Amino acid sequence: LADVEGFAYKEIAEILEIPIGTVMSRIHRGRKALEKQLHEYAESRNLLPDDDDATADMVDVIEQDATDEEVPVP
Description:
This protein has one domain. Helices cover 69% and strands 0% of the residues.
């Protein structure tokens, strides 16, 4: 309901008649489970980038953002 339909936690709690804390913890656990499954899927198909490639990509993005904002990059 939160990620697909865009409901706020409070709205979900009211719909399901459960405490908002329960909504938050269930969504957190669900997201973590999905992240784990997606990582395992990508890993099993050799879709994950090498650490060096990923780091270089992140540096490129940060440098581009800094350039766009006219922030000096050391």
